[in-house]
Amino acid sequence: MKYFIVDAFSDKLFSGNQAGVCLIDEWLDDKTMQNIAAENNLAETAFVVKRNGYYDLRWFTPKIEIDLCGHATLASAFVVTNFLDIGVLEMDFHTKSGVLSVKKVGDLFEMDFPARKPEKIEVTTVMEKAVRATVLEAYISRDMLLVLDNEDKVKYLNPDMNLVAKLPDCMALIVTAKGDNVDFVSRFFAPNVGVPEDPVTGSAHSTLIPFWAERLGKDEMTAKQLSERGGTIYCKSCGDRVKMSGYATLYLQGEIFPK
Fold it and tell me: Which residues does the annotation mark as catalytic?
């Protein structure tokens, strides 16, 4: 199968979030796809099947299949328009989270995702021990969202990964604060699914965008994820949907021989 590694949410190599993209004619069995994702050992490996007028898309971490992934969707759209259906500007991906539309606007890829507005929950000592910081507010959607005091608190956070993996009722942890030079910043940790820290996380912004849109009173925002690689996301709040845009850069093109 054709295989690509794309740096998503970045216009230069060695930054943003790496995603593997596999182009296949029909689905392989789940075990084989999971083994490929574990072998690739990236935060996500995407599998794309071309259909008549749309594309089927699934995402795997090194440990499990997940229901929504932003950076691997962006990477898949980059591969589709550059290597599968060259020059196509609008793509519909059929996924476990419904139909995700992507438009290529200049060099940016704009993704239309479901909004996942979080619900407020009580701050606990376990949360504060997990992040080794004072937590101002706590929320829950698919992931747990913890609000910190400022950008530096997010940037220099050194969480206890063992405790993060044990946080209840969530797949992963988002920490966030108002930004100094952008609207908001964040980091994302998912050690219990094989991703200690994800460099730039589109799916987390399904929660972050409605949260910060309401808090800041604005629908269009710029966000940064403050991982070591880092990346920029251009955000729009659209009611029960969110739009996020970013750049993508090709790192590798090759072939996988799964049998």
Answer: 44
Which has the closest alpha carbon to 75: 27, 3, 24, 174?
Answer: 3
Q: What is the pLDDT of residues 122-134, one digit of tens each?
A: 999 999 999 999 9
pLDDT of residue 248: 98
pLDDT for residue 33: 98
Measured distance CA(162)–CA(53) in Å, rounded: 44
